[in-house]
Structures are given as C-alpha cells and as structure tokens.
C-alpha cells in the first residue's frame, strides 16, 4: 500500500501538495453553506428583470434523463449561462421549454420553481474545490458587478 | 493505571471524531441552507431535497456522493435516452489506454461508461478527435475545466478521484489487443 502510494506520487511532490490543499479546502468549504454538486445558476437576465436567478439541478434531471437528451438532442452547450436562454424561447418550446410544457414536465406558469435562486447570485456551476484552486475567483462576481453595490 | 486514565481523553476524542466523520460521510445540505436558493421563496418546499433522492442511490465519496456508474449499470435508475423519437442510441464497449508515458498509473478510458450517458457528438470531434493517440491530453488543462475536465469537475465525478481514472497499474502488461492512446 505504502509503496503503491509512493509510486503514485513519484512524478512530483507538487501534485501531492495540490491534492492536500484540495482536501483541506474541501474540509473548510463543506462546513459553510454549499450547493449540491452540479447545480447551475443561470442569471444573465433574471436579476435585471426583477426575477430571482434560475437554479438548474443536474442531480435531479440526470436521475430521469441521460446527458445526451439535453446536450445532444436539445442542443444545450456545456457552459453555464452559455445558451442565451430567455422566456420567449422557453414558451416557444426550446431549451427548458422542450420539457416544461405541461407534457413531459410541469409548464412555465410555475415561475418560482425555476426562479428559485438568491437574488444577486452570479451565473455559475457548482463545481469541485480543486478546480477553484486552479482558477481562483471563478465564483466571485465580475469587478464591474461588485462595483455597483 | 495512570496511563489508562491519561489515554482516555485521547480515545474519546478519537471516537468522537470517527462519529463526526461517519456523519459527514453522506450528508446533503437542505436547499434552504445551500447558499444559492432563496430561503424566502414560498415555492422552495415544493422542490425535492437532494437527500431524499440521493440517499437511495449507490454511495460514493465525492461529487453528489453517488456512484452514478453503478446506479445506471445496476438498474437503480433508468433515465430516458431520448425524447425525440428519431434519436439514435449508440453504446460502444471500447477501452482506450491513455497516459502511457507518465509516472502515475495508466488511465483506462471506458467508452461504455460514457456512451451509456452521452452521445458520440458530445466528445467527437470537438473535445477529442476519434483516433487513438491523436489528442494531446494534459492534467493541467483538465484542472482548468478543459478536455476530461469539462465534465469531471462540474457534473461527473470530480478530479479529486485520481484513482478512478488512473485505474491501471503500470507494472503489468495491458490486455491483448488493447488500444493505445497518448
């Protein structure tokens, strides 16, 4: 076991350190409030329009649909906030509206079920801590937005 | 006698921390406390709590704390493959061996575990060219959310799970006919 471990980390102490930092980071952050892994907040327009930001839970949807349903058939790009979704498109049956149409799932009139985010939460995907260490500040709002407060 | 007494607090501390560890092992925050949902939203109670759904699925230590590969393979969940009737569903069972020249264990990339969930076009040809060895992969790019890191670190199990990708010992010969990537 020990030799296995050593073998794994042979190429660089740096990696081991990064890993330790990641574990320490996870321990610190799990004690604070933290969204479920894979939750996406979409807030390109909502705040400005006086609506709560949208929270899209991956865990809930992937129990019911494979990734390809949304990311191949329905054309959702792999980028939080990267699909330029709005209500006109949804009511027209695109994006969330392909299913939230009263047939596959409940219809658009349940505004608060999608628009359930804390006002002011920036567009983001709740990802793992190690990624945040490599690209620090990924979750902090853009300087312009912060300056407005 | 003295030594037994002085050891007691240490023992208690150990047990308490083990209990605390067992507690943190599988726990999901309620939506109202997760930092992104608005607790004042009256419709919040209509949403499903992660614990209600995820505690019934095969356990894992990271991400959603669910082993999604097992959940699907064992039929615990059966997510729909399509909503458009004309969609072609294709699963292939081809493993590609990557990281053949590195120092960490070899990476066996399983097409099966991926194509059970994903379409070929989700990876080919933009993320990866479909030719063994044709892609220049790097752990650093993945940590920045590129290549394998597009999904692993956002939705699929995170990059902290080194051994799930670096899953093949370097000191044993690869199976006969193994497809070798980079």
Quick rundown:
The complex is a heterodimer of chains A (149) and B (182). With 149 residues, chain A is mainly α.
Gyration radius of chain A, in Å = 19 Å
Poorly predicted runs of chain B? 1-6, 8-23
Separation of termini of chain A? 53 Å
Going across the biggest sheet of chain A, name each strand in turn: 2-1-3
Order of helices and strands of chain A: HHEEHHHHEHH
Number of strands of chain B: 3
Please write the CATH class name of the domain at 31-129 in chain A: Alpha Beta
**CATH superfamily name of the domain at 31-129 in chain A?**
Cytochrome C3
Helix and strand run of chain B:
HHHEEHHHE
Q: Sheet bearing the most strands of chain A, described?
A: 3 strands, antiparallel
What helical percentage do the residues of chain A reach?
A: 25-40%
- Alpha-beta classification of chain A: mainly alpha
- What value does the Rg of chain B take, in angstroms? 22 Å
Anisotropy-based shape of chain A: globular
